[in-house]
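All the exercises in this workshop are built on plain-text protein records. A record pairs a protein's sequence with a compact description of its fold. Read left to right, the backbone structure tokens trace the chain's path through space. Once this layout is familiar, the rest of the handout is easier to follow. Here is such a record, shown just as it appears in the course material:
>
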Amino acid sequence: MTGGAYILVALSFALATGIIGRSKGSSFFIWFVVGGVLLVFGLIAVFCFRFEKDEPERRCPRCGTVQKLYVQVCRRCGEDLYLPDPSDVRPGRGRA
């Protein structure tokens, strides 16, 4: 494969991976780089990546900021977040 053809293929994989990653709520640029470097493996990885918007959320007891359930320390006030009561967990916003 010549250099120009390889660059075209790498850019195609990078663009496809970036677009899919962005549609799942992640960074376009990060997935663009992953797709450009890893090609097919990057594309497989982005398909296996979870939808960020589907993650359940909870409210910080100290400052009231809404955080994803997997966040352990509030990004706003630094409060340690423990596993909440199931009635306090709200579903993610869903796919937009």
Notes: The two ends are 39 Å apart (CA to CA). The chain has a mean pLDDT of 86. The first strand starts at residue 57 and ends at 59. The helical segments are 3-23, 28-38, 40-48.
